[in-house]
Amino acid sequence: MDKLNLLIVGVGGQGTLLASRIxxxxxLKMDFDVKVSEVHGMSQRGGSVVTYVRFGxxxxxxxxxxxxxxxxxxxxxLEALRWIDYLTGDGKMIINEQEIDPMPVIIGKAEYPENxxxxxxxxxxxxxxxxxxxxRRCGTIKAxxxxxxxxxxxxxxxxxxxxxxxxxxxxxAKVLEVNLKAFEEGYNYHN
Amino acid sequence: MKKLMLGxxxxxxxxxxxxxxxxxxxxxxxSTEITEYIAKYDEIYSEWSPNEKVALEVAIGASxxxxxxxxxxxxxxxxxxxDPLFTVSYxxxxxxLVIMVADDPGMxxxxxxxxxxxxxxxxxxxxxxxxxxxxxxxxxxxxxEISEQFDCPVxxxxxxxxxxxxxxxxxxxxxxxKLKDYVKDASKYVMMPAMARRRHxxxxxxxxxxxxxxxxxxxxxxxxxxxxxGIITSGISYQYVxxxxxxxxxxxxxxxxxxxxxxxxxxxxxxxxxxxVEELEPFFENQILKMxxxxxxxxKLPVMGELNAQLIAEKLFDRKFxxxxxxxxxxxxxxxxxxCPGCPHRGMYYVxxxxxxxxxxxIGCYTLGALPPNECMDTxxxxxASIGVAHGMEKARGSEFRKNTVAVIGDSTFxxxxxxxxxxxxxxxxxxxxxxxDNSITGMTGHQHNPTTGFTIKGEPTRxxxxxxxxxxxxxxxxxxxxxxxVKELEKVVKAEIEADEPSVIISQRPCALLxxxxxxxxxxxxxxxxxxxxxxxxxxxxxxxxxxxxLEINPALCVGCKxxxxxxxxxxxxxxxx
Lengths: 191, 579
Prior knowledge:
heterodimer, A: alpha/beta, Pyruvate-ferredoxin Oxidoreductase, domain 3, 6 strands, 40% helix, globular, B: alpha/beta, Rossmann fold, 4 domains, seven-stranded mixed β-sheet, five-stranded parallel β-sheet
């Protein structure tokens, strides 16, 4: 692997920022140049959020544009659909099988699209799992992000020890154990 | 040692390494984290000031007192701090004074898209602009040196993508900056006409010297490559240009005011076609055109929103990046931000919407009340505006209109600049009803303390502004404190206060649901047997309650168990998960 353009998409509050922080640390440990672009402020309040992570020999722009993402980690199904056109032709997507209705759906002004996973799987390399269930089993639903990183580690073939070291560095000590467990569960997950 | 840092974190590191000992700010996205990171350094006195004007005044005082000082704000905050800015440009500094301003092209979290570079020009203050985290740190250190060398404040401008992008930073050692002597000098620091006239002469001399400095400064760099195309750019746009036009020659401007005119002329003479790539206004472009140099910029690039590499490649070089063939193939509902489950504002908006009131709004999480499902805010202009706007409406439309109108303003925003509006209402015989939404924290920017919370930026206990006493002290006789989740009581109070023929304040008091100290009893569920699907609970607009057409459901992953919905349900249909 000589470069990676990665998008993390989800709903504000799902823990996408912590995931991007760990990935940035992973990239540094691999001696890559890295840029991570985050969203703070108003959009974080339950809105659609995206974080861009770019590894490479030299990275200039912190942004990833349409058709340029090698990998997308989607924390929610509708968000997976929303950002699919950022994927390269042979890109991969990891999807957390969770639906969170946006306000227009809640108040009946829009429909939550049906069969998102089937639609996406028909055309792309999609790895989907119920990371919420796995995280709950590990001890906290907040660890969804780390479960998904576990899946990513296996999928990309990046040395898992690098991820483990990065988690040690970034995650606060009191929740370290549950997060390491979540990472292992994600790493060892099989469809 | 290399470390991955947000641009804002690198600014904090730069201030630390420069031996800065005083930092003052008012939080505002995308600038907030600068001062949060600075506050982690024990060596730096840090504070959240009540507003940006006070923050800059504190930093000015520290500088005159001989320390290196930094003051941070978002772009609209600089409007608030503009008054001291224009005059500290005249008085100059003692210890280095650096003003951080973070613009928000694309308005990710702002009410306008102003280009703060014009402040540097009009206040005659030099401005630097970094393009990644390493430069954030380096430029802040430069800024302190330039400030002391040229006896002026220095503005460092960031944009959202620089503030909120992480890239690697080489960590350096802390400089041992010694407090400079305090020297009384009224001719320099008392800006009244006779002194200010003399200082203005100094300002013009300084600008001439800075123009020369800019031409030779390593902050501005020429990267020669193609003789065909040359691009003048700065800040984050530089990063986009490097990807959109890898072979172009580039003049990267790090000192955006004053611009390096000689360097620009020299660069222009070396290329056939010259472009300027800058976000927002044609700030460089117009100055370069005035120099008589032919250059293309805003003819091809937008003055609105952010740029990116694809946009630049397409607009300047007609080159499309390989577009993805992947399509969603069906309409995708938008997902706008919403107030969180458990948010205290939800009870307040439920009542205001029920009473069909006009709502003069302000800036904070509660501005989200303008969006569906609440759709319950009529105006929102700037920090603190809600009260003055409500007062103006009353004066324009009379008491009948006023009796259907309230102003809503958060605790931090009220202290920032709402209190002056309230004094105006009292003084000028207005009868507005003002609701202070006291959620015990500055919410939208991510939980910063303020004078009403009882804690400093470093988490130390301090004296707390008593909002009730404060309102009474300025002449409000009707002040009521009410819990917004007691919707019946709140409705009664609002009805009484809008009817009163005198000004009144309702303090709607309940802590932000995201505060660690706030504990709820766990998520609820809707009993299919008891629920009559009357949809009364839908009226509170909670993102956890979902209308499934034939029945209503609570999403257990979102519900925090605040029980607001149970208070509007007439059938006791909402119960504990385990019941």
